[in-house]
Amino acid sequence: MRKLVALLVALAAAGGPAAWAATRPLSGSALLAVDKRAGFRNFLPTRMLPGFAYASWSDSGGVVRVAFRNKAGWKLEWRVQPMSGACADGSTKTFQLDGNKVWWAQIGAEQEAWRCVFALDGKPLRLVAASTTPPSKLAASGLGVVAASATRY
């Protein structure tokens, strides 16, 4: 029993909140600024593709945008936008990831993976992970994992 308690204490010390914050795609002052500005729309991804790091964020026209980039110059944009129509509108593929249904489509030069949720005020939102990097270099399911991981902060 003592060994189990010692193991649990060691795991808690090694993997506590400071370690979790380091693995978030967005943390610190940027996370606080988005959370404060976004209000009921403060849905952000909890997982990001390897090599991608936070670059910037904006809130314009009712759409929260968070940009991520990797060293190769690929861009991934996270968007929280108002939803109109059905969630599946425009999709060409679907995935079941992390218990969430995610839709995907190539729209012009941009590929998008999204899922839909309701904000605390009851308004429907579309959570979108989008990139102009072609699917041959950045898999559709990769964007889907980012979209599926989103949660309200």
Overview of this protein structure:
The chain is of the alpha+beta class and 153 residues long. The protein has one domain (25-152): Protein Transport Mog1p, Chain A, CATH 3.40.1000. It contains 4 helices and 9 strands; from the N terminus they run αααββββββββαβ. The strands form 2 sheets. The chain has a 7-stranded antiparallel β-sheet, with helices on one face. The protein has a two-stranded antiparallel sheet with strand order 1-9. It is globular and about 35 Å long. The N and C termini lie far apart (36 Å). Residues 1-22 have low confidence and may be disordered.
Record the SSE blueprint:
Elements: H1 2-14, H2 17-23, H3 28-38, E1 43-44, E2 53-60, E3 63-69, E4 75-82, E5 93-97, E6 100-107, E7 110-118, E8 124-131, H4 140-148, E9 151-152
Antiparallel strand pairs: 1-9, 2-3, 3-4, 4-8, 5-6, 6-7, 7-8
CATH architecture: 3-Layer(aba) Sandwich
Low-confidence stretches: 1-22
Strand order of the largest sheet: 2-3-4-8-7-6-5
Overall mean pLDDT stands at: 83
User: What distance separates the N and C termini?
Assistant: 36 Å
The gross shape turns out to be globular
User: Measured on Cα atoms, how large is the radius of gyration?
Assistant: 17 Å
Largest sheet: 7 strands, antiparallel
User: How are helices and strands ordered from N to C?
Assistant: HHHEEEEEEEEHE
- Assign the CATH topology: Protein Transport Mog1p, Chain A
Total number of strands: 9
Summed up, the helix count is: 4
Number of domains: 1
The CATH class: Alpha Beta
Helix content: 25-40%
Derived from helix and strand composition plus strand pairing, the structural class reads alpha+beta
How much β-strand is present in the residues?
35-45%
